[in-house]
Amino acid sequence: MKDRRVFIKLLSVGCTTMMLPLSLSANAVAKGRKKSLKFGICADVHKDIMHDADTRLKAFIEDASEKELDFIIQLGDFCRPYDYNLEFMSIWNSFLGKKHHVIGNHDMDGGFTREQVVEYWNAEGRYYSFDSNGYHFIVLDGNDNDPSPNRPSGYARFIGKEQLNWLENDLEKTKLPTIIFSHQGLDNDLGGIHNATQSRLVLERANEQAGFQKVQFVFSGHHHQDYYNNINGIHYIQINSMSYQWLGDKFKHIRYSEEIDKSHPWIKYTVPYKDPIWAIAEISPDTLNIYGKKTTFVGPSPKELGVDMSEFGYPIVPYISDKEIKLKHP
């Protein structure tokens, strides 16, 4: 099976980054889609790391509330179920429309279970599906235990057999064009889902059995980057973190005040984004448009610090690029 990777070209002028139009072909059906669908999407806010996470989330909710959105969704690494995060949750819940959650690997830090996180967020489940305006949406949980002897160290990043069976059955039941949400990337072997190929095969076989491009898009967070891939006709879109990229101990740098560093000591291991970033996705029968926020780094950039970008695979950037993906009907 041959993978096709398409890199999105960006044009930078000063501090403003513009997206060059991207036109792609994929099979699609328009049945059930009476009008365009629009949703707000953010990822990796990291309430338990960022000192201004509340302000960042509030900006997203205020923007989403001003637009006629079908729903909003966050792609994980949101907040842990501590009592002191209830105010943060109240900001999220102030959005009056439909709201959906994806579990990230850091949301269980501190010894919490996934079930506790789901209950605290009032989420539909660890993994689940829903329909909206003629589209089918599937939320995956990439934090299953990996039974293989060669499993990677660190956080779990695996989709287990039970969940894959559920995914296969769920896809078989729907006749609608389908969009997938996952925290960890299904298209990124640098810290993404360990059994990504096995997971992608479920999506590709569903398309083969349906006789059309049923699974069209897969959105993920986790990697804190901005990129796009097309693998066997399915479009994989990475949504950058709302807050920062992690650089680690080698490049730690105090970017705010000593007081903030004392109260939020993990920030110095990151390169924060000055302003929060998120995206609005608009889908019609023919086109997906993503409208992303753009900002700058706080303090020295990764390049100025001498970060080896090859270790991250994709560039470290403080924005979510605009994208236009054309869908071609059979």
Largest sheet: 6 strands, mixed
Number of strands: 16
Number of helices: 7
Query: Helix amount, in percent?
Result: 10-25%
CATH class: Alpha Beta
Question: Number of domains in the coordinates?
Answer: 1
Describe the global form: globular
- Order of H and E elements: EEEHEHEHEEHEHEEEEHEEEHE
What class do helices, strands and sheet pairing give? alpha/beta
User: How are the strands ordered across the major sheet?
Assistant: 5-4-3-14-15-16
CATH superfamily: Metallo-dependent phosphatases
Low-pLDDT sequence parts = 1-34
Question: What can you tell me about this protein's structure?
Answer:
The chain is built from seven helices and 16 strands. With 330 residues, the protein is an alpha/beta fold. It has one domain (10-326): Metallo-dependent phosphatases (Purple Acid Phosphatase, chain A, domain 2), CATH 3.60.21. The strands form four sheets. A six-stranded mixed β-sheet has the order 5-4-3-14-15-16, with no helix packed on it. It has a six-stranded mixed β-sheet with strand order 6-7-8-9-11-10, covered by helices on one side. Strands 1-2 form a two-stranded antiparallel ribbon. Strand 8, helix 5 (196-210) and strand 9 (215-220) form a beta-alpha-beta unit. The radius of gyration is 19 Å and the shape is globular. Residues 1-34 have low confidence and may be disordered.
